[in-house]
Each structure stands twice: as C-alpha cells, then as structure tokens.
Amino acid sequence: MGRPGQIQPGDVIKFGMPRRDLNVVLDSVTIKPGLALGSWVALKRDGGGAMVMGDLVLTEDEVEPVMMKLQEGGIHESAVHNHLLGESPHVMYMHIASHGDPVQMAKAIHDALALSKTPGPDAAPAAQPTLELGFEQKQVEQILGHAGKVNGGVLQIAVPRAEAITDSGMTVPPSMGVATALNFQPTGNGKAAITGDFVLLGTEVNPVIKALRQNGIAVTALHSHMLMEEPRLFFMHFWANDDAVKLAKGLRVALDNTKSAK
Predict the structure, then answer these.
(1) Looking at the structure, do residues 104 and 146 belong to the same domain, yes or no?
(2) Whether residues 200 and 105 fall in one domain
(3) Domain boundary residue among 113, 128, 146?
(4) Which of 107, 149, 179, 205 could lock 160 by a disulfide, CB 3.0 to 4.6 Å apart?
(5) Averaged in consecutive runs of 10 residues, what is the pLDDT profile of the chain (262 residues)?
(6) Is the peptide bond prior to 186 cis by the omega test (within 30 degrees of 0)?
C-alpha cells in the first residue's frame, strides 16, 4: 500500500489516504480532509484470504483510469457517486468491496491509486497540537451520546449499528464503513460545518430525512455503498453549517430514528 496501516477492532487493518492535495470549497467552507476527503481502505482476514472494503476520493478525471486499473487487478467496485452537493471542484467517491489474496489486492489498489494524485504519506508527520475546536466539543459528544476523536482539526464521531452487518456471509466490523459517521469542522463563533453519512435500514430512511430537514440539515445523497450486505443498507449523506450544538441536537433526533448502538 506504500504506507503504514492502523489495526482496528475486529482484526482489521485500515489505511487512511487523505486527499490533502485537493482544495475543495462548499458554502465558503474549505473542506478539511477529515471532514469529507479521506480515502481509506481496510482489510480483514477471510479464511486463507481477505475481504477488502474502501472509499476512494477522486476527481472526475481520475475515476475512469482508477476504475480500469482496479478492474484489471480483480478489485470489484460497489458504488461510484457524489457525497456532497455544490462543492468546487466536484468530487466523486468510488467504493470497493472485494475478496481475494490480501497482497495481490493491496498491490492492485496501490497501482490504481498511483493513477490519481492521491498524496503519499508524510515522511515525518508532525505531532498535532491540541487545539480548541471553537465549539463545545464535550457538549456535542454528550448530546450525541458518543465520544469522538479529533483528526486534522475535525471532530469525528462514529456510531455503530446495533445489529451485525454481513457481506457475502462475513461479518463486517463498524470500522469497515458500516458505522454512521458524524463529522464536525469548526467554522468560527461556535459554528461547524457537518457532513458524514447515516447507515440505515430501508424503514429508517424517510424518518431520518424528515428529522434532518426539520433541523436545518440538508440531505445531499441517498444510495448504497455495498452490493451483498445483509441486512440491506442505505447510506444518507448530509450537510449544514450552523451552531455546532444546535446541529448536534438535530443529528441526535435523526439518530433516535435508527437502530444504533447505545
């Protein structure tokens, strides 16, 4: 993969590949990689092989060459679509879900990403100073009922589903893309830009749309990320830029319409 991975719960190794090269602006907000520009790939042992899942952040002109190279390497795509609306430049997201030899799959993904401008890892990443986010982080976490982590100046909160998710009969840990992601990027004066995605059953989709819209949060995409998952899942992306505590309360109303882990 050309970079170190991090071990996650559930015997998963995950590789983060933030698109630090992109300067993407939406509603006058310059989007940090941790908010919506974080490519990732995760592998989990599957018998003598592995299952791989990932989400690759690509510019429009990168989609075709990266897809062709992945296909040549035997890596299956499960979705290509938007997550945001109105950002400049426009960004596409390519989801992958495949099974096979982990070394061969890692090489195929590495070679495909080499056809994009995805940066390599920092030679010596600087230690991130502990900075105040400019909004009430603890209050946001308390409202949502889950602690988060600060990644590159963005508060990231992951909320797993209560039930087990499987793909082709294999359990998919939350770290492989099946946890609701709630990201907050400070925009000053206690405000934050928020995006991420809710992981939903079909019966939850419209109650969550209603809850988000009633709380001033726009729904920017509704689609699938996977092909063979059980139960069938839908992924709902959202956007708002407002008082962080107010938005957290709106997200909590939406979460309460889902079967999420407490």
Answers:
(1) no
(2) no
(3) 113
(4) 179
(5) 95 97 98 98 95 98 98 98 98 97 98 97 61 90 97 97 94 97 97 98 98 98 97 98 98 98 86
(6) no
| Residues 76 and 26: beta-carbon distance below 8 Å | no
- Amino acid letter, residue 179: A
Domain that holds residue 78: 6-113
Whether 217 and 193 have beta carbons less than 8 Å apart is answered as no
Q: What is the dihedral of CA 247, 250, 255, 257, to 10 degrees?
A: -170
Give phi and psi for 233, each to the nearest 5: -120, 150
Q: For residue 192, what are its two tokens?
A: 């934050």
Domain end: 79, 113, 147, which one?
A: 113
Are 76 and 177 found together in one domain? Answer: no
Q: Is residue 173 reached through a cis peptide bond, with omega within 30 degrees of 0 on the bond before it?
A: no
DSSP readout, 6-43?
A: EEETTTEEEEEEE-TT---EETTEE--HHHH-EEEEEE
